[in-house]
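@channel anyone free to eyeball this complex?
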Amino acid sequence: KMSLSAKDKATVKAFWAKISSSGEAIGADALSRMLVVYPQTKTYFSHWKDMSPGSAPVKKHGATVMGGVAEAVAKIDDLTSGLLSLSELHAFTLRVDPANFKILSHNILVVLAIMFPTDFTPEVHVAMDKFLAAVARALSEKYR
Amino acid sequence: MVKWTEEERRIIRGVWEKVDIDEIGEELWARHRISHIDRALIVYPWIDRYFGSFGDIFTTTAILKNPKLAALGKVVLSALDTAVKNMDNFKAMYAPLSRQHYEKIKVDPDNFRLLAECITITIACKLRAELNPQVQATWQKFLSAVVEAMNSQQSK
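replying in thread with the prediction:
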């Protein structure tokens, strides 16, 4: 019941088409906020010289994360197999506690609301929320 | 009860000043209900008991037009207004609200966190860049304290 409807997918793709050119900026801002607002997430990045908002490592990694989101949009019809290698990466190598996916998703939604207040209607909000939750589930596939 | 610095009080009042309870109250509930209604109705069918008198809350269009949901959004934000105006003792003031939500309404406590997230996102549309990471952090600290106050009478 939690899976994406055809309407959800269409909404996500249409919205993504509008915002994808801002992908790097979205990623950098979302990651910056996550590290400041939820400082327990810093533990994954202790190898970075600088974790402050807008710093080079944050920008670079924000772009990486949004690249993953772009890939998920392209593979929205089968996220589980589409994101298989990313799931293995997060489960076996990075060992990110899946609870953190919710935190990053929330911050991505906050940034979308800030950057695209007119386009980020309640309908787009729900579609993006469900989509990011589906991506998080696909990334958690390999955990057990 | 959580302790607040002068800077944090200033930030929270600054955010709250920009919130028009009428405007945001309507939209907030729409965002929360739309985002979580599938989950809520499937997993917690007793929600029907509470929302049963609200009429049509089952499609996005219906949710956005439902006056009872809009009114409920304003009720929630008015309660938040009480917390902003009583930052040092709202936990005690919220005890009856907490009891009501646990004993009568039987809300899954996860919904307090989810609604808080929706509040932040709705406010983000309004405040935009003014909700910078530091402001968001302080606002989040405040909402976490509110959620904790709502949980205070759980299983008492």
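from a first look: Chain A touches chain B through 21 residues (CB under 8 Å).
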